[in-house]
Amino acid sequence: MPLDPVLAAVLTQLPPIVSPESAGDVPAVRAAQAARLTPAFLDQFRPPVAEVADRTLDVDGRDIPARSYRPGTATPHGTLVFFHGGGWAIGDLESHDIACRHLCNGLGMTVLSVDYRLAPEHPFPAGIDDAVAATRWALANVAELGGDREQVLVGGDSAGGNFAAIVAQELRAERLAAQVLIYPATDASRPYPSADLFADGYYLDSASMTLFEDAYFTDPAMLTNPRVSPLLADDLSVLAPAVVVTAEFDPIRDQGDAYAAALAAAGTVVAHKQFPGLIHGFLNLGPFVPAAAAAIDETVELVRKVL
Where are the domains of the chain? Predict the structure, then answer.
């Protein structure tokens, strides 16, 4: 299928993640993103939810910033612990605020968005350690968040999907209700065909992937570590039911598709959909691209089906 025509038009207006001026400079990339995603711009598109609260999670002797969203239902149907994308190096609570609001309303769940530590200031394993700790905090404080302990999910997009997959593995004994992996990075150990097919021209490009990998990975040996590449874990069975969604025109599409297949082969329940015509990052494009909004809605329905 060709690239969605509305998305193709939007793509011509999207500035690259890494510009010639910000090449190799993560703080400059962050500053450029913040300049685009101003409160005045985002306020036009934020769907209302019943309650939004910035909070601090006191875990393992450190503070992790987070933001909770509560739906309008009297009792939330559960809690989704959410990890934002951004190549382990950019992104924050604001960059995914609109997406979290959509997930909160669509699922009828509390969403706890986690502002984990970013590379290169905090390379591997700081971010994933925060993700695991924040999920344990949510499990211990589910009464405060709403819902019950049997309905705690983890999820995220891109690098956040990578974290959600790893958290689901490390906390398998906690019986998480589901893992929601949106175009996740799952295997940094080897190249996949989609990385060449969509290396440039589809928003997430080779320059941004190089920047992110150089920031997060400090030793090539870690690329085969399952805490980086969850596809390489020895045991993918008895994990929380998984929703894995990928995008046709995404350089890391094949990683997500391969992880869905591996989970299913190991006996884990999987609902998998590759969305045609879309690119990496569609979770944040719902207000601008009807096909992206439809994909988000369908992802919500897939989550409902696995619960």
Answer: 5-306
- The active-site residue, picked from 84, 96, 272, 280, is 280
Q: How far is CA 227 from CA 127, 163, 236, in A?
A: 11, 8, 13
Question: Does the CA dihedral 81-84-87-90 come out positive or negative?
Answer: negative
Kindly report, residue by residue over 248-284, the tens digit of the pLDDT. Answer: 999 999 999 999 999 999 999 999 999 999 999 999 9
Sign of CA dihedral 9, 97, 19, 211: negative
pTM, two decimals, is 0.97
What is the C-alpha to C-alpha distance for residues 40 and 50, in angstroms, rounded to an integer? 21
Burial label for 42, CB within 10 Å (0-12, 13-18, 19+), is middle
Kindly list the distances between the CA atom of residue 61 and the CA atoms of 58, 130, 133, 136, in Å, as whole numbers in the listed order. Answer: 7, 11, 11, 14
Instruction: Look at residues 170, 178, 194 and name the one whose alpha carbon lies nearest to residue 244.
Output: 178
* Cα distance between residue 82 and residue 180, in whole Å: 9
Residue 23: its pLDDT value, please? 86
Given the residues 158, 194, 208, 229, the one annotated as active site = 158
pLDDT digits (tens, 9 = 90+) for 7-36: 999 999 999 999 988 888 999 999 999 999
19 as an active site residue: the answer is: no
pLDDT of residue 146: 81
39, burial (CB in 10 Å: exposed 0-12, middle 13-18, buried 19+): exposed
Among 92, 250, 254, 257, the one annotated catalytic: 250
Q: Which CATH superfamily is domain 5-306 in?
A: Alpha/Beta hydrolase fold, catalytic domain (3.40.50.1820)
**Mean pLDDT to the nearest integer, 222-251:** 98
- 164 neighbors 181 (Cβ within 8 angstroms): yes
Residue 158 appears among annotated catalytic residues: yes
Active site residue 208: no
